[in-house]
Design brief:
Layout: E1 6-19, E2 26-41, E3 53-56, H1 66-76, H2 110-121
Parallel strand pairs: 2-3
Antiparallel strand pairs: 1-2
The chain binds zinc ion (2 copies).
Residues 20, 22-23, 25, 82-83, 87 line the site of one zinc ion.
């Protein structure tokens, strides 16, 4: 590695506050991420940031790794979480949480909804 380059290596862990995609209950999702960044002064690197390699202004005395870290976590964070594998979600009719409440709604009439969609698609 050339002089002036900085390598940051380690393991970050965090807890994300997300919501279950089925029942919309808050879910605290913790995950850990191995990280490895190479920082190169921008007067020695004429390419743009690519993946692991980030540039920083050559005159800078301090490195700010918050930006790259945020990017890494945004990429690694799961898009959809579920509070538990067998989450029963919300009742489509009354909106109650079917994990905790029982309602007497009959199953939604799926066929009627599809008929509407089909009618829209045919126009
Ligand atoms: Zn859930
Ligand atoms: Zn219901």
């Amino acid at each position: 590695m050339a002089a002036g380059q900085v390598m940051v290596q380690g393991r970050m862990s965090t807890t994300l506050a997300q919501v279950c995609r089925r029942c919309l209950e808050p879910v605290a999702q913790s995950f850990a991420l191995p990280i490895r960044f190479v920082f190169v002064p921008d007067d020695e690197w004429d390419c743009r940031d690519d993946g692991e390699v980030h540039t920083f202004p050559a005159h800078l005395a301090e490195l700010d790794i918050a930006g790259p870290l945020r990017e890494e976590f945004a990429l690694a964070a799961p898009m959809y979480v579920e509070c538990r594998p067998d989450c029963r979600g919300l009742c489509p009719a009354c909106g109650s949480n079917r994990n905790t409440a029982r309602c007497d709604c009959s199953p939604p009439d799926a066929d009627a909804r599809w008929e509407k969609l089909r009618a829209l698609a045919n126009h």
